[in-house]
Amino acid sequence: xxxxxxxxxxxxxxxxxxxxxxxxxxxxxGLARLDRNLDLVFFLLAALLVIIGMGLFTTGTDMAMSPIxxxxxxxxxxxxxxxxxxxxxxxxGAFIVVAEPDLRxxxxxxxxxxxxxxxxSNDWFIIICIGFGFGAFLVVGIIxxxxxxxxxxxxxxxxxxxxxxxxxxxxxxxxxxxxxFDAGGASAGTITVPFILALGIGIATTRSGKKTDEDSFGLIxxxxxxxxxxxxxxxxxxxxxxxxYVLEPNMGFASILASSAINVAIAIIPITAFFFVYxxxxxxxxxxxxxxxxxxxxxxxxxxxxxxxxxxxxxLPVSKIVGARIAxxxxxxxxxxGAIIGMFAVLLEPAIHVLxxxxxxxxxxxxxxxxVLAAIAIGAGLAMALSMVRLLFAFSILYYVIPGYLIAxxxxxxxxxxxxxxxxxxxxxxxxxxxxxxxxxxxxxAAITLYAGSGRDIxxxxxxxxxxxxxxxxxxxxxxxxxxxxxxxxxIALARLRFIEENDDQIIHLNEGIA
Amino acid sequence: MKRTNRKLLNGGLAAPATASFQPYDKTNAxxxxxxxxxxxxxxxxxxxxxxxxxxxxxxxxxxHGHGTGTQEIYEILGLGDNRxxxxxxxxxxxxxxxxxxxxxxxxxxxxxxxxxxxxxDISSVIGVxxxxxxxxxxx
Lengths: 515, 139
Fold this sequence. Notes:
The structure holds two protein chains of two kinds.
Chain A: H1 4-28, H2 37-77, H3 82-98, H4 101-109, H5 122-147, H6 151-172, H7 176-187, H8 192-206, H9 212-215, H10 219-223, H11 225-235, H12 253-283, H13 287-329, H14 331-345, H15 350-363, H16 369-393, H17 398-414, H18 417-429, H19 433-450, H20 458-462, H21 465-469, H22 472-497, E1 507-509
Helix pairs in contact in A: 1-2, 1-14, 2-8, 2-12, 2-13, 2-15, 3-5, 3-12, 4-5, 4-7, 5-11, 6-11, 6-17, 7-11, 8-15, 12-13, 13-14, 13-19, 14-16, 14-19, 15-18, 16-19, 16-22, 17-22, 18-22
Chain B: H1 2-13, H2 24-27, E1 33-41, H3 45-54, E2 60-66, H4 72-77, E3 83-92, H5 96-107, E4 115-122, E5 124-126, H6 128-135
Antiparallel strand pairs in B: 1-3, 1-4, 2-3
């Protein structure tokens, strides 16, 4: 009998420590002193809650979200009617993304005035459209797995489409551009990621073959292109909206707790309902497995509520203050500290840990957990540094995004497929709740100080971190893969030199030798 | 890559027809090998692998399974974990005592670190290169 959950809490503690240490150093060194000691106490309490929340969440996803995804993926794929399979996966995709809390938080922040269609508010209208896009691209991603087509080529085609549309949208309706990229990142959130990852694994296991390992990843990368395309297409039909950033007042603990409790419930209920209905019709799990899944769902729920509350209550205000103070000291310090904060904050993304444990399980330790984590962290740090440079000089995000994705896609041609699939998934996953509640506020805080009286728009230049955080890990992980592939080549070449001995084909009797 | 392999294989597969052929085990001192098997909790798998690496084991593999212990209530609540890993490794017989001692130390570490470990004699190996690989005596 061993206690796996203790390890979960330990790794949650290890991922939280760097962030705590940075804030403490900044506070006590006087670089970015928090106003009241009480703020510091709140921050430390929040950090403790973050550790508990993340530990519970990762335990819960292991017990519930991942098995649900695997069961459903395997079961739906084995249905004989292709029309039914497509319909069910489409429904599933739409269901799960509409419930994703990250996406709703994003849409609530975007000021979409007016009402485009009767009866539905604009942000819900966009979310529903995104649901269609996500569902459709989930089907696309699954068809790719089933037909055994190259992920890289499909990514080339769809990213080509995205950038062609982006150039058009930049001309017609530029303010929608960051929102569409953000929608892609937000749709790969804390609920969708564990589920879609497991779904991919479940589907890959039903079709036997040697390529199962690489099939398990890459589904998220394709699926989250749906929302980007949908929002871009919408931008052609909608009048240009002036996105103005409004500083939100910090909410009290009780209201944050209440809103997270409701948001997470909305997120979990649809997929749970779908699973229980579907399993009672098609899977028929034993009751013990069902109870385990229910227990896991409860852990997931409580963990996520605690995590989101703590982050929004304790981390968000601290980060904003730190950003503003650092910008006061020196603009270039913003780039440096920003990079460090971005690097360590990504370690706290709950979904990253789900991906990492899936990677470890699937590759059986061949791909090292810490090297992938390091690649993601370096990528996120780089993204933050680049974003802060953009903040200082105020230029369009497309200067980063288009060459960046070109590099990422070209790399994908040379890197072992499993690394590229993993890399594109990791990129999407890197932009989760920590990004929006710790990294982004830092940038906003800095922007408020730097742009005071300059008339530059915070929305245009401070946002877009999301788009970069989804891009840079793709490059760093692929570079890791490239290094691994080169090492492997060398090793194989060496092994090949001396594989067969003279008169190799004989039996050596170990017990009768002359030894 | 495939082409080179086939060429090498053809060279290797040529039957030892010459009269001068002497079986490897008659002309060389052969080292005895054992198949080492350990059944441990999933969370202790890493320690066993670390041990294998430390003692320079060339070949090993892992299969996963579930224990049949009846601590269901822990299982259902996600508090317990009955995943077990079976670690197979080919070791040199001269190292067997060292392995035994190290595994005993591993199991003595805590009450929860329970497991099974044993080694079986291997009577023969096919292929000189395989033998040299397993005994780590390649030139």
